[in-house]
Amino acid sequence: MEKQAVTIYTVAREARVSMATVSRVVNGNPNVKPATRQKVLDVIKRLNYRPNAVARGLASKRTTTVGVVIPSITNPYFAELALGIDDIASMYKYNIILANSDYDDEKILKVVRNLLAKQVDGVIFMGYDLSDELQEEFKSSNTPVVVAGSIVNDKELPAVRIDYRKAAKEAVARLLEHNQGQVALVSGPLKYSINSDARLIGYKEALADAGVKYDDQLVIETDGTYKSIYDQAKELADKGIKAAYVTNDHLAVGLLNGLTDNGISVPDDFEIIASNDTKYTRLCRPMLSSITQPLYDIGAVSMRLLTKLMEDNSSEENDVILDHSFVSRQSTRG
């Protein structure tokens, strides 16, 4: 004989109370007499009743679930952000649905639509610029969205990040101290706002402050992958470039290994500063100097901001900028 599932009706019948009373106990509503609450809890324990999260969501119009869109689950930058998100979500009793988007606009749109179809209460978006279709999807859904660890092309979306322009400016200024103006910016795709509207601007500002003329030949645009810069490393050195600020750690390690494999010494012949200070900067030799970001905190603050937006759809802070710093290791001389 098939065992019947324990429902809220079963609990109400056994405790001899209404289903509304059971619902109030399950949801922590204080308007229940202590003796009644205890009676209901005893029955719940005895029957091993597990409230149906979907049904509770339909009743309250909330699912206590948050969707997290991550470009690459194996990338330590995004993984560290996700850890901060998950810890705060657990603290506020939200469940996480983690969705990998593979940096692909069509997949991102599909992933977001799937999350919205599951009626998530909010979305944390990690990644780069949004397609027109994705922007429209977010606007029409009325679901709160927070961008974590990036700048995107939709300025209306709340974001938690560092000041990428300022960080780039500071890194390039350090490199210019020792390298007579031959400092490159090695970047991922410049079509993304985080690179074109922040890091490239910071690079230009550092050059201007040092009295160095901007040369677009020193802006090396790549697809952001290790191989895309590894294959160009010797060519960069042969051009007379003496240093580079690199916009992601995959690229920084690719540049380092490409130089080293071609007999070019880092930092004696070529200095490198990375931008994210993920574990990659410490696993390579020489270890990479880097801008440091409070990645865990960016994730945690993003989730906390989202909880405020989900609770009352408003927040005093729309663009939260956390402090960054710099760590000097073996890839720079100073």
Please explain how this structure is put together.
The protein has 334 residues and is of the alpha/beta class. It has 3 domains: 44 residues, lambda repressor-like DNA-binding domains (434 Repressor (Amino-terminal Domain)), CATH 1.10.260.40; 128 residues, Rossmann fold, CATH 3.40.50; 129 residues, Response regulator (Rossmann fold). Strands 2-1-3-4-5-11 form a 6-stranded parallel sheet, with helices on both faces. A 6-stranded mixed sheet has the order 7-6-8-9-10-12, sandwiched between helices. Strand 9, helix 13 and strand 10 form a beta-alpha-beta unit. The longest helix has 18 residues. The chain is elongated and about 85 Å long. The model has no long low-confidence stretch (mean pLDDT 90).
What does this entry show, briefly?
46% of the residues lie in helices and 15% in strands.
Number of domains: 3
Order of helices and strands: HHHHEHEHEHEEHEHEHHEHEHEHEE
The pLDDT mean sits at: 90
Secondary structure tally, helices: 14
Strand residue percentage: 5-15%
**Major β-sheet, in short?**
6 strands, parallel
Give me the count of strands.
Answer: 12
Query: Structural class of the secondary structure composition?
Result: alpha/beta
CATH homology group of the largest domain:
Response regulator
CATH class call of the largest domain: Alpha Beta
- Indicate the CATH architecture of the largest domain: 3-Layer(aba) Sandwich
